[in-house]
Amino acid sequence: MRRIPPVLWPVLVTLLTLVVTASLWSHERRMDGMHLRSSFDFGLRQTAVRIEQRMASYEQMLRGTRGLFEASNTVTAADFAHYVDALLAGADAAGLRTIGWAPAAVTSTTGGAPAMAARVAYLAPAHLAA
What we know:
alpha+beta, two-stranded antiparallel sheet
């Protein structure tokens, strides 16, 4: 059995520490990448849930508006403005820009086909009205 000459010991120790350092660095790099990926995925899921919740609240507002029109024979601009004021008082209206209302009046033309003449009312939240 041959003995390792004393001159090679520092070289072997240096190589061994470089291999250990490289493997530890690679492991930490993979762990950091996995942590970043999981943080990104969590943020993505959280954002998607918030968007879905906001869309659901907007859909609920539209259902309420539909209910307003189905419950009354006629809806005036004042009725609609009162409804929108009550709607905007809640927290579900966050991010809502405008709700539009257009009462349609059917008029007949010379060709016999009905034409739609409408007056459109857009009601915006107070902080956007200026």
